[in-house]
Recover the amino acids of this structure.
């Protein structure tokens, strides 16, 4: 198993993404689809940073960020479904 070195700059970028989440409910279908792609990429980026130890503080922070991103993605998918674009 390889160990991924903790990179606070990457975590800061993901935190900044979450801090800047726009009003998803006000987006049109095309904007939602683009934001979905960006959110899914951010989740993949975060997955690549998963700490090796699930009992570490870093893992708890990672899990919280992951859950927040999944919540954003769920909201996007709900809005797309409401628009008949799912």
């Amino acid at each position: 198993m390889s160990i991924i070195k903790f990179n606070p700059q990457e975590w800061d970028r993901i935190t900044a993404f979450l801090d800047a989440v726009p009003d998803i409910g006000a987006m049109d279908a095309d904007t939602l689809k683009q934001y979905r792609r960006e959110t899914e990429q951010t989740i993949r980026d975060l997955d690549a940073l998963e700490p090796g130890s699930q009992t570490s503080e870093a893992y708890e922070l990672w899990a919280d960020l992951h859950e927040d991103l999944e919540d954003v993605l769920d909201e996007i998918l709900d809005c797309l479904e409401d628009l008949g674009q799912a």
In short: The radius of gyration is 14 Å. The helical segments are 8-19, 29-47, 57-82. The chain has a mean pLDDT of 89. The first helix runs from residue 8 to 19.
